[in-house]
């Protein structure tokens, strides 16, 4: 990507806005007993709100911190 987010933010569907957004990111991974799981996405604004929940996964806060610093945690 050219915006420096290294794939953390892409166009997609915000589960809170219930519409396509230019800045969605994963906020949850749903695993199933059989068959494929799914990725739940939200716009960055809603991802920040969801990350404030005590039940939010720590990786979501880490992803937002990486987004804020412009570093995805990978080296090229």
UniProtKB/TrEMBL annotation:
Name listed for the protein in its UniProt record: Uncharacterized protein
């Amino acid at each position: 990507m050219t915006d420096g987010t290294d794939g953390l933010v892409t166009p997609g569907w915000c589960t809170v806005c219930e519409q396509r957004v230019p800045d969605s990111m994963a906020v949850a991974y749903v695993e199933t007993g059989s068959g494929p799981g799914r990725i739940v996405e939200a716009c960055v604004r809603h991802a920040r709100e969801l990350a404030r929940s005590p039940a939010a996964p720590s990786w979501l806060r880490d992803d937002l911190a990486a987004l804020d610093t412009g570093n995805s945690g990978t080296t090229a």
